[in-house]
Every structure is written in C-alpha cells, then in structure tokens.
Design a protein that fits this description.
By secondary structure, this protein is α/β, with parallel strands linked by helices. Among the domains are: 241-364, Succinate dehydrogenase/fumarate reductase flavoprotein, catalytic domain (Flavocytochrome C3, Chain A, domain 1), CATH 3.90.700; 445-559, Methane Monooxygenase Hydroxylase, Chain G, domain 1, CATH 1.20.58. It is 38% helix and 17% strand. It has a five-stranded parallel β-sheet, covered by helices on one side. A five-stranded mixed β-sheet has the order 20-18-12-21-22, covered by helices on one side. Strands 14-13-17-16-15 form a five-stranded antiparallel β-sheet. Helix 1 (21-32) runs parallel beside helix 12 (404-426) and helix 15 (479-497) runs antiparallel to helix 16 (508-530). The longest helix is centred in the last third of the chain and has 23 residues, at 404-426.
Amino acid sequence: MSKRKIAREIYTDVLVVGGGGAASRAALSAKEAGADVRMAVKSKWLKSGSTATAFSELLSIAAAIGHGDERDHPEIHYADTMESGVGFIDPDLVWGLAHEAPERIYDLIALGLEFDKQPNGKLVQGMSDFATYPRTCRVNGVTARHILNILAKRIQELELPVDEDMMIFEVLTDGNNQVTGALGWHRETNEMVLYRTPAVIFACGGSHGIYKYGVGTPDMTGDGYAMAYKLGLPLINMEFVQIGPAALFPSITLLSGPVWKTNPVLTNGKGEPVFDGILPEGVTVEEVYKEKVFPFSVSNVSFYLDTSIQRESENNPTPRGAVWYRKGPGTDELIEAKMPKTKRVLKSKGIELDRDRFEIGLISQCNNGGVQIRNMNGETEVAGLYVAGETAGGLRGPDRPGGNSLAEGQVFGHRAGAASAQYALRQAEKPNPYPQAAAKLDGYQDWLRKSADGTRSIQEAADSVRALMHRNCLVIRSEKRLSEAWDVLCSLETKLFNGEFEIDDSRFVQAVELHHMLVSAKLIVLSALERKESRSCHYREDFPEKNDKDWTKSIRVQQRDGQMTTEFYVWPTRASRQG
C-alpha cells in the first residue's frame, strides 16, 4: 500500500464523520454557514448507528421550554444536570446545553418535526430522572429516528453529499497540529480515499460494538475515540458505560424502566428465580422492579436486577447464555399501561409477550465518556478538529439525565457545524495533506508487509474482544476481571502489529477496525481499573462503596510517549473561569 494506491481525492471545506443526529445537525449547520460539506458514514446512512435504531418507552429530547410546567427554565435544567454529575462534568458546557436546547427544539419544529402536542397546542413534556419539572419532548415514541429523518430531509434538499460505506480511519495533521485532511476506506469497493479538508467533525457515536451485545449497530467500534487517542487528545470519564437489560434475540430490544413495573418473572437456565438467595432481608422483588430505571446503577436496590442477570448468565445460563423473561401473572392491564410500545416491537420480532418466554441479557447502551472538548464549539487541541454527540466528553459523568443525550447532539452538532464552517472559510490556502498521507501510508505498507505470513483471524479476534468485554467489563467489575481484560487486550494489540494476523488489502479495514476496538476497550478498562470505588453505572465488587472524599473527580486518559496514561482531572467552576 503506497501513495499511488489512493484511488480518489475529494475536496471539501468540512468533513463530518458519522451519520446520526449530531452528525446530521453538524453537517446541516455547516452547510447553512456557507461551507462545502460532506458526510462520511461508515455503513448505510439512516440505517446504522444509535440515532437511527434507538428505542425505549421513554426516548425523548430534553429542553426547558416550560410547556410541561411554566416554572421550568434553563437555569433549573442546568442545576438538575449538574446535580447528577457535579465533579465529573464541565459546568460551562452544561450551561450552554441547558440554554441552547430550547432553540434547537424550535429549529426542528421549523424543519417540520411534529412533536407530540397537548390540546392547547403546547408540546407534551414528560418527567425524566434528575429533572425537577417535566421537560422531555417526544415524537410518537421514536423521537430519535424522527429527528434524524427531518434533518436528513433538509440535507437531501440541499444536495449535501453523503459518502456511505466510508470508514474514516486517519485524520492528517501538519507540524502545527492543524488538520490537513483525512484518509478513508470505501468498504464496498476496497478503495483508499483522500479527503483534502481543513476541518473535520467527529460525530461518529460511541463504542457499543466492542461489547457482545449493544444498541445501535455492530459497526460502532469507537472509531472517534481511537482516532482522537492516536492524535494525542485526552479522553474523559471512559469508565462510565451505561449498561442495562434487553431482549437479545432475534435482535436487541432495550427494556427500559416502565417494563419492570409490570413485575415479570425472571429465571435462570435451571428454571430457578434469579433473585433466590440474593436479596437482603427486607428487600422484595417488587421493590427492586419499582426502583429500576435504565441503565444499571448502584444507587438503589435495582442494583440486584442487573447484577443477578449477569451472575446467572455466567453460572446458570439459558441455551444462549442469558436468563429467561416471562410476563408476571395477571399483568395484562399493567403491560398495556406501562409498556405498549415494547410489546408491539417484540411482537414485530416474533415474540408474543402474552405467551412466550424469551432470553434477556445485558447490553451496552451509551458511553458517558468521550473526547474532552474545550468549549461549546466542540473544539479540540488539534486546530480544525471538532467533536460532538456521544463521541464528545465533558457533558456526561456517572449519570446522564434522561433526554439530555439527544439534546447534546442537536446543541453541540449545531455549534460544531457552524464553527467548523467559519474556521474552514477563514483558511487562505487549501491544506496540502500529501506529506502526512504518504507517511501514514508508508507505515501501513510496512504493517501489511509484516503481516504477509500472518495466520490469525481478524474476525475471530474481534469476536474475542466483544466476549472479553462482556465477561470482564460489564456491570460486575473487579481487579481480577479488569486486569485479565487489560492483559488480553494488550497482548492482542502487540500480536496485531507484530504481523501475527492475516491482513491484506481486502482485510485492511477490518484490521484497522480491530485496532480501534482494542484502543476503545483499553480506554474503558484502564479507567475502570483506576477508579477504586463504586458509583452509579460503575460497580467494583472489590470496592463496593461510593467514596466522595477521594473520588469526586474525573479520570482522563491520554497517549504519552506511545503509552496509555491516566491522570485525575478536577473541573474548574464557572465562577473560576469567569474570574
């Protein structure tokens, strides 16, 4: 592989990496700001990633517009979000999120999005966790998909190019740490593509695909995290991965909080109730279900639900390594009241909730950590590189208030899009990415040459990473589990670059993707090893107590001298920054 193997060159002012809600908002805002924009989507646009496939009974977008309760306003949204994550999140980013979310809601309405409305014409707004007042807005139960579709409609009207099946795997920078372009690989034609662009936006979601089971689609392998790490950028709060229960087969259906209010019966592979001998005296199964929300948390007795599912899946599994779910007796009316959408979705997949038992397990749903951004525009230490959506870090700590994720995508997608366009249009000369591209491709050529006699399977290695993360870094974590995962991940990475894997041009992108999986998994595992306490979605069975005295601080991971290193990070207050 060499410079002459570049099959195509594409010129653009702004390259948006990703195709979900944040990426689409970024692309549209950059286009509206006057830039030439392209989107590069790893799979099929509108059919892959989190936004396109998201589902839950409570899926919504949060904004303090006061339609649910006129007492709500952005300052209260800010205070609620800070309460959920103080010490772990950037107050300036949260302030901006709370104050700009209403405007982004009205943008979507102007584009034609029909939010659910009250008879008086105001929007229906619901309560969510950590909220003082109802502030989540919904669209017919599938809010995320409707947001994406309305953005896509406008993008298509503007004839903004979308490069599908295009995996961006390398951002090119010059000696001034400034973006000059990006390398992509077209997965259908096996062609190398060079993007000549001064501005790149990472809005390519999280790393759900590094777990055995995850929402979204399997192509979510943490590419944004890995590329940022390779550039030397810091990542923050990576140990906080939101995980929770879902129906696993024939495809994943998330089981959100309302589902558990119907008191289902859970049994292991031997037919035994999963809670037998588990609950402490005075705690009932009904109480566990009453407290359950998505995702897993150590903060209340719902802790016993998720940990019991993992233990029974390991010790007394069903035929496919899960536990059985069956509706509770006499709960038909409860099911219709609490989980009508879930019932319909399960039926569309061949599961009749009234009569069938089915297998459930734990799935990865959201990365609360990400690439640390410097400000509301999603800027990074690399000039011309912006980050938005789930790829960005600094807005989500141990907990993530309901509805904030979709709001983040719209607020920071818009900001990153507008800022990147302004940056690109200010550049007097088009960047020259050839020197950096040639150096990168020479390195990949050496890798391929070294791998000419490799025999290990890339696919088998990727599957082993997913199984390892499912076993060792799910909801039950410990020094033993995490250390084993770290050692295996480091060993695989060494073998990958020592030529032990079978890699040629046809397997090149799979090999790069495996490396991105390994980097993303290591970021999570190392952060989880470092945090020696239990807090919200991070449970260490060897350190089961929450420790506010020593651990109300973030862990930041960064590449230094070729090594993955950690440091503690204390967020400045808004007052200190303004002072």
